[in-house]
Amino acid sequence: MFTLKKSTRTLNLFVSIANIVILLALESFWLHNAYQSEYKQFLLDVSHSFDLAAQKEQTYRIPINDIINPGHVTIQSCGKEEIQIIRQCPSPDTIIFDNLSGQSLETFIHKAFYELRKNILPLNIYCLADLFAGELQEKNILASFTIDHFNTATGEIIETTTAGMQSPVLPAKYVITANISATTSLQAHIQFTNAAIFKRMIGEIVISTCLVFMAAIGVFLIFCFSCQKEKEIPEIKAPVANDKIFKIGRYRFDSEKNELSDPDQTIYLNKKENAILRTLCEKNGNIVERDFLLNEHWGNTGIIYSRSLDTYITRLRKYVKEDPSVQIITIKSQGYKLSGVIF
Q: Does the predicted TM-score (pTM) go above 0.90?
């Protein structure tokens, strides 16, 4: 029974550990998917920040007064829907904007001045880098970068900046490319670590860790509860034979009452008869040495007591003679054995 309880406890422990391992595996799977999702969103946020920085750089590149002077801007109406904005400068710097699509005057003017800012002065990548760094900081994005302005046809770098760069030796994990003109383009080389992603998913990490911790506590409590239940369940023992009553063939021997009975009669044994028969029954068909009987019941192996033992054996044989299956057999030079004993 002890082995059974130990095996059950070991099995419960194994199941508990297996459940915890499964919980950890599920948490890892969940966090992996959360990381992949957060990684994609991180790159989208970086790209969006760069687009905003590029728009601001074009807007802040030159004040409106510098666009008008030293040139001269006029707005001409060419009909009810067509409007032209002309910046009159020495050729070939004269620029004409036609509102051929019939946009509202406000929208057309805004677009025209935006294009004027873009075309009058070249791109300032240092201003762009500062604006990009500001956008990343505003969105709490942990990343560093370099920006290259290069010739699209030859790949030659015209100018570069390390604004926002923290670890120049690290390779870029993400590259953003934007065309500036027909001949030049921009490339922003973004660097970041896994810590930048984990910081954004701190909520998922805390929640999953708490859930696994609580589930592990639950599994542990269940294991402890099952162990406690095992202690409370009474141990079921195999039935033990009555060591005072024996079934000998057709006879019933009650050693406590000194009775040897069958369906027809009851024989009352004296103290010595009862003790000798009980010893033979307890051996259950095995040999009981003669000297053992003498020492056990007389404390002596002398001739007188030896003859007395023979007398008692003879009496007992007479008591059970009605059942041929029950015999007290003499084993020469050894002792006696009783056949037909059933506990």
A: no
